Amino acid sequence: MSSVEKALVIRHREVVPDYYELEFIAPEIALEVLPGQFVNIRISDSLDPLLRRPFSVYDVDKKLGSITVFYKVVGKGTKLLSQMPIQKPLDVMGPLGRSFSIPTEADQVFLVGGGVGIAPLVYLSRVLSSEGIKTKVLMGASTAGFLAGKSMFEKFGVPFLVSTDDGSEGLKGRVTQLLAEQLLIDKCDYIFACGPESMLETVTELAMEQNIKGEISLEGHMACGVGACLGCAHLVKTGEGQRYAKICSEGPVFKIGEVLFHSQDER
Amino acid sequence: MSSVEKALVIRHREVVPDYYELEFIAPEIALEVLPGQFVNIRISDSLDPLLRRPFSVYDVDKKLGSITVFYKVVGKGTKLLSQMPIQKPLDVMGPLGRSFSIPTEADQVFLVGGGVGIAPLVYLSRVLSSEGIKTKVLMGASTAGFLAGKSMFEKFGVPFLVSTDDGSEGLKGRVTQLLAEQLLIDKCDYIFACGPESMLETVTELAMEQNIKGEISLEGHMACGVGACLGCAHLVKTGEGQRYAKICSEGPVFKIGEVLFHSQDER
Amino acid sequence: MSVTDKKTRKKARAQLNLQVNLGGMQLKNPVTVASGTFGYGFEYEPFVDIAGLGAVIVKGTTLEPRMGNPSPRIIETPAGMLNAIGLENPGVDVFIGEYLPALRSRGVTVIANIAGNTMEEYARLAARLDGQPGIAGLELNISCPNVKQGGLQFGTDPVMVKEMVAAVKSQTSLPVMPKLSPNVTDITAIARAAYEGGADCLALINTLMGMAIDVDKRRPVLANTFGGLSGPAIKPVALRMVYQVAQEVPLPIMGLGGIMNTRDALEFLMAGATAISIGTANFVDPMITTQIIAGLQEYMEECHIADINDIIGAALPQ
Amino acid sequence: MSVTDKKTRKKARAQLNLQVNLGGMQLKNPVTVASGTFGYGFEYEPFVDIAGLGAVIVKGTTLEPRMGNPSPRIIETPAGMLNAIGLENPGVDVFIGEYLPALRSRGVTVIANIAGNTMEEYARLAARLDGQPGIAGLELNISCPNVKQGGLQFGTDPVMVKEMVAAVKSQTSLPVMPKLSPNVTDITAIARAAYEGGADCLALINTLMGMAIDVDKRRPVLANTFGGLSGPAIKPVALRMVYQVAQEVPLPIMGLGGIMNTRDALEFLMAGATAISIGTANFVDPMITTQIIAGLQEYMEECHIADINDIIGAALPQ
Ligand SMILES: Cc1cc2nc3c(=O)[nH]c(=O)nc-3n(C[C@H](O)[C@H](O)[C@H](O)COP(=O)(O)OP(=O)(O)OC[C@H]3O[C@@H](n4cnc5c(N)ncnc54)[C@H](O)[C@@H]3O)c2cc1C
Ligand SMILES: Cc1cc2nc3c(=O)[nH]c(=O)nc-3n(C[C@H](O)[C@H](O)[C@H](O)COP(=O)(O)OP(=O)(O)OC[C@H]3O[C@@H](n4cnc5c(N)ncnc54)[C@H](O)[C@@H]3O)c2cc1C
Ligand SMILES: Cc1cc2nc3c(=O)[nH]c(=O)nc-3n(C[C@H](O)[C@H](O)[C@H](O)COP(=O)(O)O)c2cc1C
Ligand SMILES: Cc1cc2nc3c(=O)[nH]c(=O)nc-3n(C[C@H](O)[C@H](O)[C@H](O)COP(=O)(O)O)c2cc1C
Ligand code: FES
Ligand code: FES
Fold this sequence. Notes:
The complex is a heterotetramer, with two copies of chain A and two copies of chain C.
Chain A: E1 3-16, E2 19-25, H1 27-32, E3 38-42, E4 53-56, E5 59-61, E6 66-72, H2 76-82, E7 89-96, E8 108-114, H3 119-130, E9 134-141, H4 150-155, E10 160-164, E11 171-172, H5 175-185, E12 190-194, H6 197-209, E13 213-217, E14 233-237, E15 242-246, E16 253-255, H7 262-265
Parallel strand pairs in A: 8-9, 8-12, 9-10, 10-11, 12-13
Antiparallel strand pairs in A: 1-2, 1-7, 2-6, 3-4, 3-7, 5-6, 13-16, 14-15
Helix pairs in contact in A: 5-6
Chain C: H1 3-15, E1 20-22, E2 25-27, E3 31-33, E4 55-57, E5 74-77, E6 80-83, H2 92-105, E7 110-114, H3 119-129, E8 135-141, E9 148-149, E10 152-153, H4 158-169, E11 176-179, H5 187-196, E12 202-204, E13 208-211, E14 213-214, E15 219-220, E16 226-230, H6 235-248, E17 253-256, H7 262-270, E18 275-278, H8 281-284, H9 288-302
Parallel strand pairs in C: 3-4, 3-18, 4-7, 7-8, 8-11, 12-17, 17-18
Antiparallel strand pairs in C: 1-2, 5-6, 6-16, 9-10, 13-16, 14-15
Bound molecules: flavin-adenine dinucleotide (2 copies), flavin mononucleotide (2 copies) and FE2/S2 (inorganic) cluster (FES) (2 copies).
């Protein structure tokens, strides 16, 4: 069950410019959280910014009762968060949302992350490995300096390949190109992906072409985080047609093929 | 001329419970500021709290270019301010308002402060002393623990007497009683007072009864601090009748007898 | 606090009366949750004892299921947020068949919130909900920006408001609470019309109509262009309207709009509201309702007020 | 930035056009300051080159001096503030005799803001100001909560608005800019009425009517009970009204309400405002106007926009 905790910040550092790792003690959340779930953080007592901000769980230390999130400074809230000193309590609500499933039949799975979208894939990769499922991480960034999650995969010994838009490291191009290449040369039974919508759309196309099952994690503007406000709607397919699903409570993890993208959703 | 400075906080401590001393580097303001003037502080970048908060200048170090304010935590803004770490820049606007005048003909003057109202009297007492005017400070608080400004007067060797509502130190009673007593037994050519309105009203009555001139420093809700918004109006007497004066720019220091109190102003 | 202190306090609390009567609806306490901000209550069960609330006002219900608007549906604004959900809901039959029984079994005081495209739809919804066990009253959302008739919104025209309320009243024995739009020149005129139409109480306010522009994309942020502004930003406007209506119309008021804490709740009660609703604040702090109920009790103890009804309207002119 | 970079930038800036025409008023740039928030300009001279502003809209002026309301006149609210100044001002003669010459000698573009108790007072004020050198235009404050006629505020009744604008127009050769109240059901109806009365441009919005209650004293905080809500809290409402009116009425708009930074200013321009006013933000940051002018230039450079007029209305439906 979700709860709200006053979580003591024990570690907070800028990994690469504008990307931060933040670790805090939240035993109840740490105990329950599954890969792909998120926490909703109240960044300040002030009424501006007003709403909580959602962040995927990057890693968990179940013994210590701590949770790490990995975030990028993009606006007012994340800017403020980046100034949060350690040893202060943070108001954290979680765990929220549906987790990734563990494809126990799979032999090898691909984890595809674009930018800060690698956040939920670290904890997932650890759980998959512990279940004896081989994982290969494909991660992309605009340039080598922003490949921030590498150290975590290195730390946990998860094999990974990278792409950068400017070719400063790994394949020059999008991470979806990397995925296309890898699908040609390596076995993949299941795909997990998180990143910008355009990336997720391409991942969906690639997976469906090759008939590979998988799951993607979406983002969206949120208010409540618990399915009450209907603010975080995303169009999904249903038997008969389409409907809006709540990213926070029916997602953020959706099956590949279930989600409808821009082209249908946006003006 | 007033300016806005990004002032580095160099000292910040809780003197007695809820009363803080805050020192910051603001060379342009420090150079110009006179006793009785105030600064307007933007406490956070957030839009809540939105407006700046006014604080009297408690002390100045002209050499260092620093200013100290002395404040009490009473609400959202002062609470937030109390959490301000040192070595961070604070957005300070000043100096603002009219200063106390220096009654060069006076031999001995009384400085009367109620609660946090002693704030502007410290710097004033130093300037008066340097002009060779004898000063006697009368300060009141609810209880001994809140007589926070004492250390400053001790430091600068300014003689002072105290009163407390509960009698835990000095005279048991209001500081205005202390003033009444002192007016009977000691010479006073001029009175300066700062504190709650009810106190200022009584000081005014006592001074006028005895035909002693003087000045009082008012507080009020402020928005602009520069006389532009007309938000900080206080009723004053004019030749023909009455009008609203701007506390920020025509005050906060007013001549004794000039200001009209509650009884006339409020519903 | 010593053990004896705690005991005395507990005893004192037991003697406090928090119960209020909102136009025939008996509420355990004046703290309710606003329609559309608390789902059907279940979503907040991990955080709140929902049966302990004065009432749960559920998400707006229509005759037929509604899909709602495209995304983005919400965006934060300074001390507020805009929403354009578009009344997404599964329709009245699912509400009656699935949600209502579950709420009833939990002992929740339920106020149903209804919306339609025409006056007739409102009347049919009222008829359909009449006699359904477990509903304490009906809130009429006549202030939804989607609902228009003859080019004008129902909620902004006194004549239509009066007719609408009368039409609904004729179909139900439940207390009827029209929820007024703040996007009007004279809120007291609308409130009076609702009174004349037979309303049992009034809820005010719904959201202020607003918008935001995405400077990079050079177009409105919300897919629906306009949205409803809620949260602390609108509190001064909401409070003003409650204060005005409380003086002009002899109906109990459910006050809402930007309430974030106990002091805000007290402001509304003192402005003349008999009960209050918490909306956007639930998103910020999911346990806020429980905290405000406790906060009201503390306030009553400190100020020696035995009955919450004694402070209702305390700030109104004598 | 290297020296050559700086030079190129300076050159680029020189070629940017920030000038706008607001219904006959030529403004150096679209950034003006809102009436009542900038005094007569002098108050902000330590912080701002007031002649560099698009215009200074001075404090509301009446025929006779006004004393204003008792205190408290202002109170902060979440991301906003309430004010009930009560139009304190020294009267039109002092304005013409003392303030105007001083502003003129500094090269400030001045827009006078006028208010009265009756339509006749407005007309007389307009006549009195007509031909006074140094005034670029007249802003009509028809939205002040103090000003009533026949129980209704001028600014909320289309018929009165039209008459009022026509009455003022007949007395002056200056461009006339009615400033509209947001406390209305349909802002476009009021805007159209002003247009039909002969307005040259429109300013929107004035403050939303709100209040706050002092829980300890159990009475309204403001001595005047009600006050006008301004600041970022109201920005979504202001922006929505500008966007609506820009589509319905063929008049240039001065947009204001809660603008705090360059992005906010751009939102209003994209919503269809030809110029913008900064009000409450001056209190928060006295140098904000200068910063927004620079910010607009930076934005234009980054987006390769040579003329600010090219982004006006960019977010309106095609
Ligand atoms: C389930 C979920 C998990 C997430 N996990 C992570 C994570 O692990 N690490 C991370 O860095 N970010 C994550 N995000 C995104 C993160 O929540 C936003 O970056 C953050 O809320 C922005 O807040 P801000 O105040 O800094 O930005 P704002 O000032 O609010 O906005 C800045 C920009 O971000 C956009 N934005 C704001 N909120 C969101 C949002 N919820 N989703 C998408 N765009 C938004 C705005 O439109 C704007 O363009 C996640 C979002 C969701 C929904
Ligand atoms: C010229 C001047 C000099 C001042 N000097 C000092 C000083 O040296 N030290 C000090 O501690 N305080 C001083 N004050 C008062 C100080 O500005 C307020 O205590 C502060 O603004 C409160 O901010 P807040 O956000 O904590 O309180 P809020 O949450 O804004 O309000 C808390 C309480 O304080 C009251 N309040 C808010 N603002 C003011 C105000 N401007 N004046 C009076 N009451 C107010 C509110 O009505 C409320 O009761 C001065 C005020 C003025 C006008
Ligand atoms: C996301 C969201 C959805 C809402 N949906 C409804 C609704 O379905 N019916 C209704 O009458 N009001 C609805 N409202 C309005 C709220 O019930 C309430 O009147 C408004 O938000 C003001 O209160 P607040 O400031 O406390 O949120 C909704 C508000 C929000 C924020
Ligand atoms: C303290 C204060 C005084 C004001 N006085 C006037 C006035 O005299 N005449 C007028 O037309 N508007 C007046 N206004 C309204 C502003 O000009 C402006 O319309 C409003 O504040 C919204 O803009 P903002 O949110 O940027 O402040 C006043 C506003 C404030 C805050
Ligand atoms: S954020 Fe409220 S329903 Fe998803
Ligand atoms: S605070 Fe604006 S005039 Fe004094």
